[in-house]
Design goal:
The complex is a heterotrimer of chains A (365), B (349) and C (572).
Chain A: H1 2-10, H2 23-26, H3 36-64, H4 70-75, H5 81-90, H6 97-110, E1 112-115, E2 120-123, E3 130-131, E4 136-137, H7 138-173, H8 178-192, H9 195-209, H10 225-259, H11 262-269, H12 274-312, H13 317-327, H14 330-358, H15 361-364
Antiparallel strand pairs in A: 1-2, 3-4
Chain B: H1 2-21, H2 32-40, H3 43-60, H4 62-69, E1 81-82, E2 88-89, H5 112-147, H6 150-165, H7 168-178, H8 185-196, H9 199-213, H10 216-223, H11 228-264, H12 276-283, H13 291-319, H14 321-327, H15 334-348
Antiparallel strand pairs in B: 1-2
Helix pairs in contact in B: 1-9, 1-11, 2-13, 3-5, 3-13, 4-5, 5-6, 5-8, 5-9, 5-11, 6-9, 7-8, 9-11, 10-11, 11-12, 11-13, 12-13, 13-14
Chain C: H1 6-14, H2 20-26, E1 48-52, E2 82-84, E3 95-97, E4 105-106, E5 112-116, H3 131-140, H4 152-156, E6 176-180, E7 183-187, H5 195-198, E8 227-233, E9 238-243, E10 261-265, H6 270-279, E11 287-288, H7 296-302, H8 306-309, E12 312-316, E13 319-325, H9 335-344, H10 347-353, E14 360-362, H11 389-398, E15 405-412, H12 421-432, E16 436-443, H13 445-452, E17 461-467, H14 474-481, H15 501-512, H16 516-531, E18 536-547, E19 552-553, E20 570-571
Parallel strand pairs in C: 1-10, 1-11, 15-16
Antiparallel strand pairs in C: 2-3, 4-5, 5-7, 6-7, 8-9, 9-10, 12-18, 13-17, 13-18, 14-18, 19-20
The chains are: A mainly alpha (365), B mainly alpha (349), C alpha+beta (572).
């Protein structure tokens, strides 16, 4: 829903400001009585909770209602029958589906006790379960990996916004000139290159051939901020170059749109400098769609981060996910999917709010 | 990678929605002949179409081509590599000659041309088949939501929202983990991509269907008592063709990159079946000693995705020049830009 | 359980040798006899040697280390009753005295071994090393909290099976006597002619009881060797060793100890290690690695560069990679099927997949191709370079598989070029010509070793490898082929379930020999005899190639562990 409302916002680009279709919000019509910005925030918050609930249901059904022996898969191939039995008890596998799911949800929200036969281990909320294979709590495991992934994704996000919007502005400003054609070609190449190919080539050229940077090894931000940034520079670039391409396209389109509007032509007629028009008016017009696209692309950027982490050997949740997939550590896989889903849904909601702040028309609609 | 096209997808959603809000631009103007004529005016799209056609031909004719070369993708040729030097191909250009057109793979001596063209089969086969799934599910869900009762629409739209929110790469990775290894891998990858990533197309179809539903001839059909299935088939599908084709054209390159990414991570297609993603993983260390081993799959992937993206843009421009002009990428030439600018002005005034 | 940062590591590994030219220029005038033995002049005393490693020295307690010949870095700090001969090649596979005056004096049937300590042996604090300290060091290794060493002491010493170490049982082991401060006597359950080899392990290093801090001892183990630990950060990731001034070269014929200082930097990626060694910049010019080999692509690059190629040390460790059959699973219960596969195998593909002829030598014997193992060349099922498909088909026809055979090969999904998918795919191709269709089943690393070593889950046909705890046929053949070592519930290494009375008897007979040369000959003959059962198909013996810095001299690599010996190295 968040995405659609954001995209619906994008359709204002067309100049047809009559926003007929608000389907994304129709589902929340019960809250339609709430109006104004506060009402909007409430509607969005409820939407986030509902979507998260739906994500958890789907993830649970997909991974815990498989044809195989769920307890065996969860516990791992080296578990004894007694251990498997223990896990089956823990997962309430003998109960009806809704009871099992409720138990799972309860653990997420309120925490859960895990019995290991001899001792009882408490898993505090938000409890994503226990990885029987590596004998640790999934939440803790993810928390240790999260800083790496957040560093990667948010650092790259800054970079792709700056690069993308910058390129878009430049090509809108230089429209019809050779600069624009070059930028357009580069942008196109960017959209067509898989992140692991760009990353691989960057690594080979920058670290291997030219030796401008060392092969990245993650350093904690708190330990050494300079080394942190230095080591993440290449992963950031790999992820950002590809994302930036679509921002360049969108920024250029939005700016051209604004530049073609009547009042801009009027400014021009009055002799306002092109540079000032670009900075004051056209760029502002591009703000809202860029936010919407940023939310839209967050999920795919996280997918790209998995590849980037694997490529550069950064110990983030993406690398951990690939590892968990390889050893079929089900609780970790499920935990990762839920956490990533949470961030994606949240990113969409934040973008919606930002978008609403940028363009009150959405709220008023 | 998925993101490249998800964003193109986002733009397509926009473009399609724009179309959807403007019934006049929908079916009548988009005749097949006009579409071809518009497509033909775009030089880049034409070149891209030729490249794509060539790639499909190569993939289809892979057994024929390798037979012509006299090789196959799995036979080892120990005599063509220098065992004492880690198994680097003997001879210049990675051992390329009349027998092995693109040289041989380090350490095994397997024919690279054969592996590349068989890899094209996997790449294109998985991507196209997955697209068919995505379109089928997306169109069904979209139409059902738009034509169904309000609660059906609510339910289906919510499900669609969740599928849009789930990141494709992450979910594919996770799903591939729990399916037993005995399941044929290319089929599995196709299914996973196809079953997961249909959310956006369903939204496009739903929005477009809602618009079409209000058109006179559809309303008339409804009033004269046609069933929903007949209406969908006779009245809606022709009108949906343009946005669906546009969107599908953008999904193909996305699916190619996702397949390559999964194989690159080692969870996609398994050896000894050749695939480009897998070749990249194996080739990275050889970039100095045998550069062509890395450059061939990387180049193939790049050219394929680029050609499909440009073609997709071309198709969109041809089907809906007005919406596309706003978001157009690299097919732009100066004159077209002027035309586009004119079009923009026409819209805003 | 850590997923290695594969691609980065691999790419970095491949980028070897890029800065070499620049590096050489920066180092000023070239010294051309960079290779071995310091070009005639005596090796330079002093300087700092850097060791760049992947794996941190997490265990630095002599009780917990599982090493062959005393280990690499640990051998700089711990002296043991005996040690490996610090010489190049085959001479290095011999056992020589270290703390003791000789390699041990056995009684007639080799069940009692007596050692006398040299005079004037001192710890890093100047106190004297006594035989009681050696006894105490061994007893500590029985403590459950200090587990990790090899199982031999528990199996061999009289009454040691249930011993729980000196913390719980201060009376100690009666099987070890110390009649005076320089004498130590070991009483064994059964004849063990190879006891001198065992006495090279770090459990035989002296530990002063007064300084024992239990599990914390590894933070600062008391040195009996030429260097002492002055810094140990992050559980062995960064170590600094400085000279132990109480160590005397007069009592130690083996360790040269030329550098004044040794810095160990570990936790590095193998790519980074190889890249730094090839660039050889600054402190890396005097750096070596004791745990990182060159891979095939790196070798391809290095061997094309003469200057780099001159800085590669080549070593061999007694090690065999092989195909294993489980005769409890059909069709491998039929010896003709096992023979057919042996005949059909095209080893050149397998060797290439393992990195080519410079990194792997084709094997037709189970024992490693070294004299100390009693290596006797034999090829019972000659397959030639490309496999004998005709002979294989004939055997398969006899066995009732005239229309071909489909088998499943189990392998691991690790990236080790040993049991990894590349090797499995090569075998798949190598057997194709004989009409044998191979299906592959890949298992994750940990899962793999558990699966193949459990009799209940052991697959019919799988990739395996075995390395020796010391360079002799005993620890190579007995765990794999001694019928009394089949473990029905627990880790089983006799995966072919061979329980042949004559084989068992011969193993016992050889263990009685104290003439190690005579023993070696009989191990070789036994290997050939076992080979007739075709329970394994030997594939290859690995060869180690390792880079070292441009200013590293006096390179010694023995056949015992195949690794550049840090105790012999001099730095310019």
């Amino acid at each position: 829903m968040s995405r659609l409302s954001a995209l619906k916002g994008l359709s204002s680009l067309s100049g047809l400001s009559g926003l007929k279709d608000i389907n994304g919000l129709r589902g929340l019509s019960g809250f339609a009585v709430l109006s104004g910005f506060g009402g909007f925030l409430v509607r969005r918050a409820v939407g986030v909770v509902l979507t998260l609930f739906a994500v958890s249901v789907i993830v649970y059904v997909v991974f815990y209602v498989t044809p195989g022996n769920v307890a065996q898969i969860t516990c791992g191939p080296r578990c004894s029958p007694e251990q498997v039995h223990q896990v089956a008890q823990q997962l309430r596998l003998n109960d009806p589906l809704y009871v099992r799911y409720w138990h799972f949800l309860e653990g997420l929200v309120a925490g859960q006790d895990y019995s290991t036969g001899t001792s009882v281990e408490h898993c505090a909320a938000p409890c994503l379960g226990l990885s029987y294979q590596s004998d640790q709590q999934v939440t803790g495991l993810i928390l240790t990996k999260l800083p790496v992934s957040l560093s990667l994704v948010f650092g790259a996000m800054v970079l792709w916004l700056v690069l993308g919007v910058g390129t878009g502005v430049l090509s809108a400003w230089r429209r019809g000139r050779p600069t624009e054609r070059v930028l357009t070609a580069v942008t196109l190449a960017g959209t067509a290159t898989p992140v692991f190919v760009i990353g691989l080539i960057l690594m080979i050229v920058v670290c291997g051939e030219l030796q401008l940077l060392p092969f990245p090894q993650y350093v904690n931000l708190t330990d050494d901020p300079e080394q942190w940034a230095w080591n993440l520079l290449l992963p950031w670039l790999s992820l950002a170059l590809i994302e930036a391409a679509s921002f360049a396209r969108l920024t250029r389109a939005a700016m051209l749109e604004t530049l073609a509007e009547d009042h801009v032509r009027t400014f021009r007629a009055y002799g306002v400098a092109e540079r000032s028009i670009i900075a004051r008016h056209a760029l502002r017009g591009a703000f809202a769609p860029v936010i919407a696209l940023n939310a839209n692309n967050f999920g795919s950027a996280v997918g790209g981060a998995v590849l980037t982490e694997t490529l550069f050997g950064l110990p983030g949740i993406g690398q951990e996910l690939v590892h968990a997939v390889n050893v079929v550590d089900l609780p970790v896989v499920v935990g990762m999917v839920l956490v990533i889903g949470f961030f994606v849904v949240l990113a969409n909601a934040v973008a919606d709010v930002l978008y609403a702040l940028a363009d009150r028309r959405v709220v008023l609609a | 990678m998925s993101e490249t096209v998800t964003k193109a997808a986002a733009e397509a959603v926009v473009a399609a929605q724009v179309t959807g809000t403007d019934p006049a631009s929908v079916p009548a103007t988009t005749g097949a002949r006009q579409f071809r004529r518009r497509l033909r005016t775009q030089r880049a799209a034409l070149v891209a179409a030729c490249v794509v056609a060539l790639l499909v031909l190569v993939a289809l004719a892979a057994p024929l081509l390798t037979a012509l070369e006299g090789q196959d993708p799995t036979t080892y040729h120990p005599s063509l590599i220098d065992s004492a030097r880690g198994g680097v191909p003997v001879g210049p250009l990675g051992g390329a000659d009349g027998d092995h057109w693109l040289g041989v793979e380090p350490q095994t001596g397997r024919d690279l041309f054969a592996r590349l063209v068989y890899g094209a089969r996997v790449s294109l086969g998985v991507a196209l088949a997955a697209t068919v799934f995505q379109v089928a599910i997306g169109v069904t869900m979209g139409i059902a939501a738009a034509l169904g009762r309000r609660w059906v629409d609510q339910l289906l739209s919510r499900i669609t929202d969740v599928f849009v929110a789930l990141p494709l790469m992450i979910m594919s990775l996770a799903l591939l983990a729990i399916v037993p290894a005995s399941f044929p891998r290319p089929v599995l990858v196709t299914l996973v991509i196809g079953l997961l990533s249909w959310g956006n197309i369903a939204k496009v179809v739903r929005a477009q269907t809602l618009t079409l539903k209000e058109l006179d001839h559809v309303s008339a059909a409804r009033l004269s008592g046609w069933g929903p299935w007949r209406i969908a088939r006779r009245e809606l599908l022709p009108g949906l063709a343009a946005p669906v084709i546009t969107y599908a054209a953008l999904l193909v390159p996305q699916n190619i990159t996702v397949e390559a990414a999964l194989s690159f991570l080692g969870v996609g297609v398994k050896p000894p079946t050749p695939s480009w993603g897998q070749m990249l993983t194996a080739a990275d260390v050889w970039y100095q000693a045998a550069p062509q081993y890395l450059l061939l799959p990387a180049g193939a992937l790049f050219v394929t995705v680029l050609a499909l993206t440009v073609l997709g843009d071309g198709v969109r421009t041809a089907l809906d020049p007005r919406a596309a002009s706003r978001l157009r990428v690299g097919t732009g030439r100066r004159r077209e830009n002027k035309a586009a600018a004119a079009a923009e002005q026409g819209v805003s005034s | 359980m850590r997923q290695p940062p594969l691609t980065a590591r691999r790419v970095a590994a491949a980028s070897i040798g890029l800065l070499v030219a620049a590096g050489a220029a920066a180092c000023g005038p070239e010294d051309n006899d960079a290779k071995t033995s310091g070009g005639g002049s005596a090796p330079h005393q002093g300087g700092t040697l850097t060791i760049l490693n992947r794996n941190p020295q997490q265990d630095f307690d002599p009780a917990r280390l599982y090493t062959s010949g005393g280990g690499k870095v640990p051998t700089l700090v711990f002296r043991t009753l005996t040690t490996r001969n610090r010489e190049n090649g085959a001479a290095g596979a011999q056992v020589v005295p270290d703390l003791a005056t000789d390699t041990g004096r056995p009684n007639k049937d080799a069940t009692v071994w007596t050692y006398t300590l040299k005079e004037g042996l001192k710890y890093e604090d100047g106190s004297a090393i006594t035989s009681a300290d050696v006894k105490y060091g061994i007893e500590r290794s029985f403590a459950p909290e200090l587990s990790g060493g090899a199982p031999y002491l528990r199996d061999w010493l009289v009454g040691a099976a249930g011993y729980q170490g000196p913390y719980k049982d201060p009376k100690g082991l009666a099987a070890i006597e110390t009649p005076d401060a320089r004498t130590i006597v070991f009483h064994l359950n059964k004849p063990e002619g190879e006891f001198p080899y065992l006495a090279t392990q770090t459990q035989f290093a002296p530990v002063p009881k007064a300084k024992d801090t239990g599990t914390k001892y590894e933070e600062h183990p008391v040195s009996s060797g030429p260097y002492k630990v002055v810094r140990n950060d992050n559980d062995g990731e960064r170590l600094t060793l400085e000279r132990n001034t109480f160590w005397s070269a007069k009592t130690d014929a083996e360790r040269k100890a030329y550098p004044d200082r040794i810095e160990v930097r570990s936790g590095l990626d193998s790519s980074v290690i190889n890249q730094r060694l090839s660039a050889s910049q600054g402190a890396d010019a005097t750096a070596i690695t004791t745990d990182t080999n060159l891979g095939p692509a790196e070798l391809a690059k290095v061997s094309g560069d003469k200057k780099l190629a001159a800085r590669v040390g080549t070593g061999r460790f007694g090690y065999t990679n092989y195909l294993a059959f489980n005769p409890r699973v059909k069709p491998f219960d039929d010896i003709r099927v096992r023979q057919a596969i042996s005949y059909a195998l095209d080893r050149s593909s397998v060797v290439n997949a393992a990195g080519g002829s410079s990194l792997a030598e084709a094997a037709t014997t189970f024992l490693p191709n070294q004299k100390s193992f009693g290596y006797e060349p034999y090829d019972l099922f000659p397959a030639g370079a490309t496999g004998d498909a005709a002979k294989a088909k004939e055997l398969l026809k006899e066995a009732g598989h005239a229309s071909g055979l489909t088998v499943t090969l189990t392998h691991s999904n690790s990236q080790d070029f040993e049991t990894s998918p590349e090797i499995a795919t090569a075998i798949q191709d190598a057997l194709k010509k004989a009409g044998i269709t191979v299906k592959l089943q890949g298992l994750e690393d940990n899962d793999y070793s558990d699966t193949i070593h459990d009799v209940k889950t052991e697959p019919g046909f799988f990739l395996a490898h075995w390395g020796a705890d010391w360079p002799s046929g005993g620890p190579f053949l007995a765990p794999i082929f001694d019928g009394r070592q089949i473990v029905e519930d627990g880790a089983n290494f006799n995966t072919g379930f061979l329980d042949d009375k004559s084989v068992n008897a011969e193993i016992d007979a050889i263990n009685k020999l104290t003439d190690l040369d005579a023993a070696a000959k009989r191990w070789g003959a036994l290997d050939k005899k076992i080979g007739e059962q075709a329970l394994t198909v030997p594939l290859f013996h690995p060869v180690y190639k390792r880079l070292y810095g441009a200013d590293v001299r006096n390179i010694v690599i023995s056949d015992w562990d195949g690794v550049l010996d840090p105790s012999q190295v001099a730095v310019k």
